[in-house]
Amino acid sequence: MELGISTFGEVQPDGLPGKAVNARQRMKELLEEVKLADEVGLDVYAFGEHHRPDFVISAPEVILAAAAAVTKNIRLSSSVTVLSSADPVRVFQNFATVDLLSDGRAEIMAGRGSFIESFPLFGYDLSDYDALFTEKLDLLLKINQSETITWNGKFRAPIPGRGIYPRPIQESIPVWLAVGGTPASAVRAGRMNLPMALAILGGRADQFVPFVDLYRESAQKAGHDPSKLELAVSSQFYVADNSDQAADEFYPSYEILMNRVGRERGWEPLNRSKFEYNRNYGPLMVGNVEEVTEKILHQHELFGNTRFLAQLVTGYIPHAKVLRAIELFGTKVAPAVRKELGVTHL
After folding, report:
1. Collapsing DSSP states into helix, strand and coil, what is residue 30?
2. How remote is the C-alpha of 149 from its chain's centroid?
3. Helix, strand or coil for residue 317?
4. Residue-wise pLDDT tens digits, 186-231
5. Cross-strand bridge partners of residue 233
């Protein structure tokens, strides 16, 4: 099983048209984080796309290209690329460029987006939410397999036998489908025989077992071998030298993030007791090395996933402590997980 990190690049908004000091510092920190993750032997690092003042990454491909220059082995992915509001031609070109810069380490994690700011920003109608993703995914996959494309659709100008360049050093760029628990998404991923990335941010992990089963059953019904499917599971994550320290350092940033999003979506306010319940019985992976290791292994027992992505929620956690969490993940948690699963890490 591969072990890695995903981040949305939380930032304290500068609130200015220029002189974005906080954003500049956060970008520097993100590159230090991915560089350390590579050095401690983690397998993948993923940067998520948002178009909000509280996240600094709106162009994952750009920071992935910068990450390619400061890393050697770690795979570099988006988490996610909001494909519904993007041009698949440009997405492919950008990721092919990252692939060339990284000597074949680029991946695309494509999703419809849990936040919708990009739709009005780029002039798309939310009533076309599903249709946009279906059409653009079809085009992206065709470009990924063929140098020259002839294509027609509803939401983009046709492509009359044009070449799409540059081409990647990999035979094709791995394209994962990012899903949040909608059954139709699991069916789509299985039917198309595509790797699926599942974010588990609430509820008990075992509640998602039927969803993963549906993914594999859909693949089998479509004539694919479900044993060859790749599955990534992502949960919010923070590890420290002891359990209480991890909880105390993580909770303030987590509370701010979840309540900010919760106000927009009508969720009940989060408090410390709910946080502790989610940490002990829910999907939150916040604790010491042993606790986090045990939870990762429990998820693997439930899902048979081939990848775990630790979603960092950094917020107001000092950068040095974030680096310590990455160090512990790579030097303590990852070796323990790999040993238990009999995974050989080169």
Report:
1. helix
2. 28
3. coil
4. 999 999 999 999 999 988 999 999 999 999 999 999 999 999 999 9
5. 198, 308
For CA atoms 50, 51, 55, 56, the dihedral sign is positive
Mapped onto helix, strand or coil, the DSSP state of residue 147 is coil
Tabulate helix, strand, coil % of the chain (nearest 5).
50, 15, 35
Tell me how far apart the alpha carbons of residues 149 and 143 are, in angstroms, rounded to a whole number: 7
Which tokens in the block code for residue 295? Answer: 């939870």
Measure the CA–CA gap between 6 and 34, rounded to whole angstroms.
10
- What gap in Å lies between CA 284 and CA 303, rounded to an integer? 16
Q: Pinpoint the alpha helices (H) of 170-269.
A: 183-191, 209-221, 243-265
Tell me, what amino acid is at 221? K
Name the maximum alpha-carbon separation found in the chain: 60
Q: What is the pTM of this model?
A: 0.96
Amino acid in the structure at residue 27: M
- Could you please report the per-residue DSSP string of 102-165? TTS-EEEEEE--SS-THHHHTT--GGGHHHHHHHHHHHHHHHHH-SEEEE--SSS--EEEEE--
Q: What residue type is 176 in one-letter code?
A: W
Strands 2-7, 75-78: pairing is unpaired
Q: Which of these, 130, 140, 117, 112, lies nearest to 199 by C-alpha position? A: 112
The pair phi, psi for residue 156, each rounded to 5°, is -145, 150
Specify the residue for token string 């909608």: 182
The candidate with the shortest Cα–Cα distance to 286, out of 318, 319, 333, 218, is 333
**Strands 159-163 and 148-151, how do they pair?**
antiparallel
